[in-house]
Design a protein that fits this description.
By secondary structure, the chain is an alpha+beta fold. Helices cover 63% and strands 8% of the residues. The longest helix is centred in the middle third of the chain and has 73 residues.
Length: 344
């Protein structure tokens, strides 16, 4: 059960003052100021959740830019290769034309008449015509390919510029959220030690209550207990990251965000997965919770804004939020969205 806290006069005044400072710092729309520790906690949870959503959007934008940059580089390389090939073919065609000119450019029937070996002259004339025709066809094809590649490269570059602009927009949004996070951290830092301990106790109590409710369904008697070979490697990687700090957009080795941890864990197992929790939910194979096994990824919240790796026995490893470190937590402590399996 969630604790009902009594707001004593002095504590209420302190928290109200801190909440006022928070509101002024982030310049957000007017909201009811939290006046109890429970309300401050709810405000912190909202800010941190908004930050995680913004992080996922930024990471997704960054992935799109990186992917498009690779495509543009590939197209430019192919266009350059086509240009070089066309230059070589044009040079060869010119050389052939000059050689024919130096040879007098005689019609085939004349060469036939003057040749000491008429059959050889006829064969040479036929081969020359075929070579010229073939070279011209190749030049035409390469010219067309070069034009198409140039058009594709220009189009891809335009898309890249739009994606970069979108990422700059994400940077602006990220800056706004970072201000919220900084204000939240200041709010936490100004709480008395006893208040911080009480916040931690509330978090622990809620997590334990949620876990107990989840386990009461008998779920742990039905889920799998054995990871796949790749799953064991992913779990081993995640375990080695315990204690490292949560940092926005980080994929290791010194720090992680939630999806940075899960994507790198599975990459270490030789299985590339999407970078963000939302894409992991969208693109990886969904499995029923009752079929979950260690190594699977649990996606949390209705907006798929958080992800963790299931380690068995009802526990997960995850990177919780700014200010926290990679840790082990109860799997049922947050609102389930579903389970995905990278190695289907």
């Amino acid at each position: 059960m969630r604790r009902t806290l009594r707001a004593h006069g002095r504590r209420t005044a302190e928290i109200a003052a801190l909440a006022l400072a928070l509101t002024a710092t982030v310049q957000q729309p007017a909201r009811a100021e939290p006046t109890t520790l429970a309300e401050v906690r709810a405000e912190l949870q909202r800010l941190y959740h908004d930050a995680e959503v913004a992080t996922d959007k930024y990471n997704a934008a960054d992935v799109k830019v990186t992917r498009q940059e690779k495509r543009v580089r590939t197209l430019r390389a192919r266009a350059g290769a086509a240009e070089r090939r066309l230059t070589r073919l044009t040079a060869l065609a010119g050389a052939a034309a000059r050689a024919q000119y130096r040879g007098g450019g005689l019609p085939a029937e004349v060469q036939f008449a003057l040749s000491g070996d008429p059959r050889h002259a006829l064969e040479n004339a036929s081969l020359a015509r075929q070579a010229q025709q073939g070279t011209q066809l190749v030049i035409t094809a390469v010219t067309t390919t070069r034009g198409n590649l140039r058009a594709d490269t220009d189009e891809a570059s335009d898309v890249l510029n739009r994606l970069r602009a979108n990422r700059r927009t994400m940077d602006t949004e990220r800056e706004k959220i970072e201000k919220h996070i900084a204000a939240a951290k200041r709010l936490e830092s100004r709480l008395a030690a006893s208040q911080r301990r009480e916040l931690d106790a509330m978090d622990t109590e809620d997590a334990n209550d949620a876990q107990a409710k989840w386990e009461s369904t008998g779920i742990l008697e039905r889920v799998g207990t054995e990871a796949s070979a790749a799953g064991r490697e992913a779990l081993a990687y995640a375990t080695r990251q315990l204690g490292k700090p949560y940092v926005w957009g980080a994929q290791g080795p010194g720090s992680f965000d939630c999806s940075g941890l899960t994507s790198q864990a599975w990459l270490a197992a030789g299985v590339p997965v999407p970078r963000t929790s939302q894409e992991q939910w969208r693109r990886l194979k969904h499995v029923p919770v009752t079929a979950m096994r260690p190594g699977d990824l649990i996606i949390y919240f209705s907006d798929a804004s958080h992800v963790a790796i299931y380690i068995g026995n009802g526990e997960i490893i995850h990177a919780p939020r700014p200010g926290r470190r990679v840790t082990v937590a109860p799997a049922g402590s947050m609102a389930f969205l579903g389970v995905v399996r990278p190695d289907t």
